[in-house]
Design a protein that fits this description.
Elements: H1 3-6, E1 11-22, E2 25-37, E3 42-46, H2 53-60, E4 68-73, E5 76-77, H3 83-93, E6 94-97, H4 109-118, H5 124-137, H6 153-165, E7 171-175, H7 183-200, E8 203-208, H8 211-217, E9 220-225, E10 228-234
Parallel strand pairs: 3-8, 3-9, 6-7, 7-8
Antiparallel strand pairs: 1-2, 1-4, 4-5, 9-10
Helix pairs in contact: 4-5, 4-6, 5-6, 6-7
Length: about 240
């Protein structure tokens, strides 16, 4: 590998565009966004509702495909992935955390986390061990046997975070992870995301509308407005 290849960004978007047809009209959710993310970086994507933040995250995670432009992961265009390769990418490379928790109501916290491992063929004792480790990492070991209805919103989001990192993905995508939480609980959850970033070296891309929080936890903040990248820069300590 050449020295230039060795310095390739982990994530690169080139002219990334996503349009949707709404009746007779075409709505552009994202327009020609070009962005690099270094391996191990914590990037916050800031913008109001409807600015294209979630669309960008879905494209990075392989949940959606662009109308134009490209998403490159370690130099490879996601558009060249087969259907199977995209599934493997979502299951092994990416961990997702959303504003809604998407927990299975009938399963305990531990079982919800372990469920994510079954898609990779990890079951039984090893699955429980890794689920317990992830639960401990988010500080919920005493609540591991509780179902979602028995947990607070903050605790449910911690379970969702544990589920996202149980397979130690190199990339964590967080879509307004504190949007349903009060300020104090939001701070606890975002501190956990920051700790995971530091301890595991995980690349984090988090979308949010909270400038104060983004500036405090991220290495860099970029701003989206009406689907366009309008500003970016390093966060000053």
């Amino acid at each position: 590998m050449s020295s230039a290849e060795g310095h390739e960004p982990f994530i690169e978007t080139r002219g990334l565009t996503r349009e949707y047809r709404v009746g007779p009209s075409i709505v552009r959710a994202l327009g020609e966004v070009s962005l690099n993310v270094r391996r191990g970086e914590f990037l916050a994507v800031l913008g109001v509702s409807g600015s294209g933040k979630s669309t960008l995250l879905h494209l990075l995670g392989g949940l959606d495909t662009p109308t134009a432009g490209s998403v490159l992961i370690a130099g490879r265009d996601l558009a060249t992935f087969t259907s199977y390769e995209r599934t493997v990418y979502r299951r092994t490379v990416v961990g997702f955390v959303f504003q809604s928790y998407y927990l299975v109501p009938s399963l305990t916290a531990e079982e919800n986390v372990a469920l994510a491992l079954t898609f990779q063929g990890t079951f039984g004792r090893e699955g429980r061990r890794r689920a317990d480790e992830a639960i401990r990492r988010v500080g919920l070991e005493r609540r591991a046997r509780h179902r979602p209805s028995q947990l607070s919103g903050g605790e449910q989001q911690r379970v969702a975070l544990a589920r996202a990192i149980v397979h130690t993905p190199p990339l964590l995508l967080a879509d307004e992870p504190t949007g349903n939480l009060d300020r104090a609980t939001a701070q606890e959850v975002i501190s956990l995301v920051q700790q995971i970033h530091r301890d595991l070296g995980t690349t984090v891309v988090m979308v949010t509308h909270d400038l104060e929080m983004a500036s405090r936890v991220a290495d860099r903040v970029v701003h989206l407005r009406d689907g366009h990248l309008v500003e970016e820069g390093a966060v000053l300590a």
